[in-house]
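Field notebook, page 421. I keep forgetting to write these up properly, so this time I am using the form the group agreed on. The chain and the ligand, uridine-5'-diphosphate, are recorded exactly as supplied. Prediction of the bound pose follows.
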Amino acid sequence: MKRDQLQIAMFSIHSSPIGELGTKNTGGMSVYIRELARQLGTRGHCVDIYTRLNGSKHNQIIDLYDNVRVIHLSAGNNGYVHKLALYYYLSDFFRALERFKHQENLHYDLIHSHYWLSGRLGSWVQDRWNLPHLVMFHTLGTVKNIAGVADQEPDLRIATEKKLTRTCQRILAPTEREKDNLITYYKAPSEKIGVAPCGVNLDLFQPMDRAAARQCLGFDDNESIVLYVGRFDPIKGIDRLLEAATHLQDHRRLRLVIIGGDGPDTPEYQNLQKMTRKLGIQNTVTFAGRIEQNHLPPYYSAADVLVVPSYYESFGLVGLESLACGTPVVATEVGAMRSILRDGETGQIVTHANPRSLAKAIEIFITGSGAKKVSADMIRASVLKFGWSNVAAAVIDEYDTLFRQMNYEALDNASAKVSSL
Ligand code: UDP
């Protein structure tokens, strides 16, 4: 059953879709929500994205794009609350949501929730409003724990994720690998899981002349530029990228540009800086800070290679963004990287991801030896199918599957009632 104009309630409680990208809790998920909602809006669907009021700089309701609103509701205080502590404020949020829906006389066709915290909220809403519920986890607690680099994710998260795989009506995973993880670690029913990739804004991320990009950023044309873009989280593996740089010391003109983070006053930033001094590479590394996404394309174009050194990614948007700008990617075997990169052409997957192997792979692209000569346009061509419009089409198919499934269930229930008469 195709529906022309869906009313969609999206939940992204812990991370605002309009938050500052590259900071602690704001990254790929916010980009995903914004871009997907924009595409849904242009197709005539209406999307309300509910998030927690955190600081008072925003109006309660923001008209983000055509047919897309961001709605801020209170939970706990209206300031910073640690992500895990938010769990205990979800009931506050739920009450605020019920009040808001009632006041505004809102009606929805489905719930699309993001991350386990919003999934928990979504499960209450699903029961109370009697709506189908699709969950995207973005990352899975168990898989993060297996990676074993950050603080262990609490049992509460894992139990909640596991329960959600039973109670929601559909799960959307960004890769087949994440689908397998859901089945292996949570025994999620396979038929409930759809797979649709994440995307890239092909209008924003476009190749530009490397020399021109370097000039506009004040980088030297003779340098080899290795780029990292992302949050400063232990799971991202920036530590092993820094170590890899020590194995590239022969390249006198190497520059490692690190983009992202919450600023120089934060422990994460200071630890990384300390590490560069300890490794003796402080003159090789440039911490460029958080950069607005609109200003990222010249950085991707200026670089010889982007590195994704993560221990775990559910997808890895920066990889797509770099390729869309025509710059190859060296990545550990995480997220969608294996299915996106063509080894030795558009990038290189590093299977034994120690710093030395990372360095070897990076070397291929800074020396140009060992990689097939591939133009920026050809690299870009390899990701054209990942435009957000295609992603939205795949997600809408998932919504359709969800509605069909619900109809079957309703029919099954009805026939069970009839046969019990
Ligand atoms: N990003 C940004 N500015 C920064 C750092 C990151 O706009 O300073 C954006 C980047 O363009 C990408 C997203 O944040 O779209 C990070 O997504 P990814 O999937 O790579 O990582 P996640 O945050 O989901 O772990």
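OBSERVATIONS:
- The chain has a mean pLDDT of 94.
- The radius of gyration is 22 Å.
FOLLOW-UP: compare against the apo run.
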